[in-house]
Design a protein that fits this description.
By secondary structure, this protein is an alpha+beta fold. 23% of the residues lie in helices and 29% in strands.
Length: 424
């Protein structure tokens, strides 16, 4: 939280020129918010300023709003947290462990002088640990704590007090008394103040080119209900802050009918002196050109108030053929059909060619082996086919020839006889 509050003045100085010089004074408060707002002229601007800590609730029970309690954290032999005592202005201090009653206490004037130190008499070994002093103010929503470590020793030479970089460490001799410090002198913890005059909220306006110390006050609001308007814009009802601002914690500034003169730096200051609250919120308002309404076409007026008949051309339905791609195997499938058809035709052509050649070959052989038709007489001549010649190998069954020569002569005679028969 403290880191965020530290960085906010730096962010405001970077984005809002002039905010750095305003944040240099500690009385102005801590810048907790910085914003740039741009709106067109004629519109309404709302500069938000909210804080729940500024909500007006009169502290009629202020003695019960402040509480102090001491806690003990032990790390050995086992880790444990123990409430030692607590105390508020309207109630007696309460000690939780019976062994510590009369031995551990806080002075009764703690809420008068702001001294909440813990007194431990007759220190024992079990008192060793880390003690925490917790201060709570529920009305102001403030919580603070202080840690002190207590170690017990049996040697007087080892008694000491030192700072370990995080907390104060006491090394105490066994059986002695010790006071663990917890002091807060702020009036918030010491005594209640009249709160109705302590809550203040006001708005300031710094036009462009004006120094921060010359910024004009617009309005002051007090928790008692008093209100002071300094600018004429509030009288004209152009600027306003809600009357129940302290009830809701909403101190937003509304600006109606923005004009170019409203451009500048606005700051909301919230002060709660009783609780120590001092915050500031900065807004840089930029007024742009007014928004021009969109042009509207005026209705046409016809002469003699006779509307021109409308002729509508009815278009016939348009058919759009959309070829949707099929699956991926569409092309391969049709390519297979084409190849199968081509191969079938090629097979048929080859078969026809083979059959034709075989038939021609058979025709030639048939012509060569055709049976003889007899003697063909052409030009008055007779041709004899060699097939008609027959060799005379007839051997008579009873032959008187004794040698081959006579046999051959005899056969020749028979052949001559056959030729003579043919000529006849």
């Amino acid at each position: 939280m403290h880191l965020d509050l530290t960085l906010l003045p730096i962010v405001a100085a970077l984005f809002l020129p002039g905010a750095w010089c305003q944040g240099s004074g500690s009385t102005l408060g801590v810048v907790v918010e910085a914003m740039n707002i741009t709106l067109p002229a004629g519109s309404k601007a709302v500069l938000p300023c909210h804080s729940s800590r500024m909500v007006w609730t009169q502290d009629r029970l202020k003695d019960r709003q402040r509480v102090v309690h001491w806690d003990l954290v032990r790390s050995s032999p086992e880790y444990s947290v123990e409430r030692i005592l607590d105390m508020s202005p309207g109630a007696r201090q309460r000690v939780y462990n019976g062994f510590n009653k009369g031995r551990i206490s806080v002075q009764n004037s703690a809420f008068n002088d702001g001294n909440f130190s813990l007194i431990i008499n007759s220190v024992v070994t079990t008192d060793k640990g880390v003690y925490t002093c917790n201060l709570h103010h529920h009305y102001c929503q403030i919580h603070q704590s202080i840690q002190v470590q207590l170690n017990v020793t049996k040697s007087a030479r080892k008694e000491k007090r030192y700072w370990d970089g995080d907390k104060t460490v006491f090394v105490v001799l066994l059986g002695k008394s010790v006071v663990l410090p917890c002091v807060n002198r702020r009036s918030l913890w010491r005594e209640g103040l009249q709160e109705d005059q302590q809550q203040v909220a006001h708005w300031d306006f710094q036009p462009p080119g004006v120094r921060p110390d010359r910024a004009g006050r617009l309005v002051d609001l007090f928790g008692s209900g008093e209100r002071r308007d300094y600018g004429t814009l509030f009288g004209q009802s152009r600027m306003s802050v809600e009357d129940d601002a302290f009830t809701l914690g909403d101190f937003s500034l509304s600006i109606a009918d923005l004009k170019l003169v409203d451009k500048g730096l606005y700051s909301c200051h919230l002060h709660h002196h009783y609780c120590g609250l001092s915050e500031r919120r900065i807004f840089r308002l930029t007024v742009g050109p007014p928004v021009t309404p969109a042009p509207t076409t005026a209705p046409k007026i016809f002469q003699n108030d006779v509307p021109v008949p409308r002729t509508e051309v009815v278009e016939g339905p348009r058919v759009v053929n959309v070829i949707l791609p099929e699956h991926r195997g569409y092309f391969v499938q049709h390519l297979g059909y084409f190849l199968a058809t081509f191969l079938l035709l090629a097979f048929i052509v080859v078969a026809v060619i083979v059959l034709t050649r075989r038939r021609k070959k058979r025709g030639v052989e048939y012509d060569l082996r055709r049976p003889d038709q007899g003697n063909m007489i052409r030009g008055g001549e007779m041709s004899l086919d060699c097939t008609e010649l027959r060799t005379c190998h007839q051997e008579p069954m009873q032959s008187d020839h004794k040698n081959n020569l006579l046999k051959e002569i005899d056969m020749a005679k028979d052949c001559n006889k056959d030729f003579e028969k043919l000529w006849k």
